Amino acid sequence: MFRCFPTNYVWDLSVNLSIEMGGRMGEIAEMCAPLTEAAKAPDAEGTRAFRESWERMADRLCGLAEDDLVRGRTLSASGKLMRAANYMIIAERMQAHGSDGRLALYRRHLATFYQALALGGTGAHRVEIPYAGKHLAAIFVPAEGASGPQPLLVQVNGFDSTKEMRLMAQLPGFLARRGIASLVLDQPGTGEALRLQDIVARHDAEHWATPVYEWLASRPDVDAARIGMEGVSLGGYYAPRAVAFEPRYACGVSWGANHDWRDVQKRRLERDGDFPVPHYWAHACWVFGAKDVDDFMQKAEHMHLDGVLDRIRVPFLVTHGKHDTQIPLKWAHRTYEQLVNSPRRELVIFDERTGGVMHSSVDNSGPALDCISDFVAECLGGRTS
Fold first, then answer.
1. Cα–Cα separations (whole angstroms), residue 263 to 183, 244, 305
2. What is 238-288 written as a DSSP string?
């Protein structure tokens, strides 16, 4: 893992996320250079400085993109705007819930991202799926060279990621080249669902996974018999739960085996294990609509996969970083061991030889991207060569 702030894992996690989402090292180095002391400050003071530095770079890139547009260079403009959107969302997710300007920055990030997406000409576009009287927003990414109904992988967020981050983190592109479409989803408790619609997280992922499946199955460009689901980080709990209780999903992937998230929370109360975001407990209460930490811990009691995984009767891949400091490696083995009825269960531990040893391979996502996209292509009828 690249360590820019050796005393602050949370900040370095954000930096590594940005790198894996396509950030440029020169730009990242410039943004981080003035933040050495701020990284040692309390959350509110430090994250405010982080935001100011990263937003300045985003402003510069937006200005450079305007220069490109004046000259008709839309592809170059798209690239700069996408990096600006990257830096905006990294800065946004570091801020406390309700902090001044956070929502405005999120809305600006969305506007910048979708301008970049439209200029890029990939065919990827935002969609809305009816849910509980509201909707869940997602990004539909078609397979390359698709004709007729496409196999598709639904991709869900972790505790603090968003669909835009996940698109920038490249898995949809890897899948598209293998003939697999993607639906990158802001499920309850993440992204637009949380920030713009107040749809909070819930342990029973099938509550939203079933309407998502049915919406996809109704589309003429999607093959209803070849829809899988993958989840990263906390999504490593949601995806197997969804596949277990919605048997029409054709395969599943945990990118980080979050088998017993209730245990992880108990460890964090004891300051054991690394946190993913600043202001952690306030963020957790926001995500789950809890009135306080005690209420959140009661909700977290449901967040485990014991007694669930024997329901899965489709291929399932479990991946984990050997040196994950957020989710202990033992939970990857527990998930794999309990997939007793999967016709094809695989466990891949990323180690020093492969790279990608940290949480959800944030230190080097290349090995995980190859592994996951190849497994999904083999299971859903895509291509690996």
1. 30, 21, 12
2. HHHHHHHH-TT---EEEES--SBHHHHHHHHHTT-S--SSSSHHHHHHHHH
DSSP H or E segment with residue 232: strand 222-232
Question: What is the C-alpha to C-alpha distance for residues 115 and 81, in angstroms, rounded to an integer?
Answer: 7
pTM assigned to the model: 0.97
Residue type, 385: S
Distance CA 167, CA 112 (A): 14
Which residue type sits at 227?
I
Residue range 76-92, pLDDT digits in tens: 999 999 999 999 999 99
For residues 305 and 263, what is the distance between their CA atoms, to the nearest angstrom?
12
The band of 273, judged by pLDDT with boundaries at 50, 70 and 90, is confident
Rounded Cα–Cα distance for residues 336 and 348 (Å): 10
- Provide the residue type at 264 as one letter: V
* Inter-axis angle of helices 74-93 and 25-32, nearest 10: 40
Q: Residue 192 is encoded by which pair of tokens?
A: 């637009």
Q: What secondary structure letter does DSSP report for 39?
A: G
Return left, alpha or beta for 87; rule: phi > 0 is left, psi -120 to 50 is alpha, else beta: alpha
